[in-house]
Amino acid sequence: MEWPLILIGAVTSFFGTLAGGGGLIGMPAMILYGLPIHTIIAATKFSNTISSFSSFFFLLRSKEVKLSEMLKVVPFALAGGLTGASLAGMIPEKWMTAAALIFLGFAFMLSLLKNPEQKQTEERHRLSPKSFPLIYGIGAYDGIFGPGQATLSMYLYFQLGLSYLQAIAFTRFQTFISCLGAFTMYLIAGMVDFDVAIPLAIGSAIGAQLSVRTARYISFSAAKWIVRGATLLLIVQILFRFL
Q: Could you point out which of 38, 108, 136, 193 has its C-alpha 20 to 30 Å from the C-alpha of 180?
């Protein structure tokens, strides 16, 4: 058993579920471990599919969200993941790095200029139709590259007025769907190394379960600053890679 990959998966998933930015830890760690970039991306899509479903299912059983509302995400996130994975070999990584910098920088500034407030009761479960193109776009980015995807999703759901736990649930469900689509394409292309993907997925599932239990003790105000901190770290890392 590849214990280092289990540890990488657990740590990445724990922090990635709470605030996004798991790629800040996971991708550099796996590169240092000696894995090629396409193997890393394909294995990450598999592990994210497993871990995101486990954390989403826990919050669904806890009645933090409504399945009927979350199912509206499926066609947009799935189409995005499939699109992104299909384009992965056609778009230079540097272009995607530049796009990540722009999107994360915009999301960070928006969070400072427009402080999101939680909606009340029933309205907190509802998605705005305007959010669906953004869900598709984030899914496509996830299928192509990925780092920062969960952070962007958290910002989206905060701006829609969802609570912290609801934002995590929607983000993990959206990640599950987009990664499922992307993983399917990578599998068809023969790019998935299960000797890497399976231990990474085991660690990711452990980290996801620990994080959703920890999230219950984090206030909405603190959560916003955790996400902002993760965003700044992501921007610094991606800027370093870009330059």
A: 108
SS3 content of the chain, % helix, strand, coil (to 5): 80, 0, 20
HEC assignment per residue over 49-110? HHHHHHHHHHHHHCCCCCHHHHHHHHHHHHHHHHHHHHHCCCCCHHHHHHHHHHHHHHHHHH
Helix axes 149-159, 220-242, angle to 10 degrees: 140
- Cα dihedral value 38, 39, 41, 42, nearest 10: 110
Residue scoring higher pLDDT (129 or 110): 129
Task: Say if CB 139 and CB 81 are below 8 A apart.
Answer: yes
pLDDT in tens, 144-170: 777 678 888 888 888 888 888 888 899
Residues 6+ apart with CB under 8 A from 78: 139, 177, 178, 180, 181
The most confident of 102-106, 128-132, 195-199, by mean pLDDT: 195-199
- Start-to-end CA distance of the chain, whole Å, equals 36
Q: Which two tokens stand for residue 180?
A: 């499922």
Q: Is 210 exposed, middle or buried (0-12, 13-18, 19+ CB in 10 A)?
A: middle
Backbone phi and psi for residue 22, each to the nearest 5 degrees, phi listed first: -60, -30
* pTM of the predicted protein model: 0.80
Task: Give the residue carrying structure tokens 């407030």.
Answer: 117
Rounded to whole angstroms, the Cα distance separating 171 from 132 reads 13
For residues 157 and 99, the answer to whether their CB atoms sit within 8 Å is no
Choose among 114, 124, 216: nearest CA to 170. Answer: 124
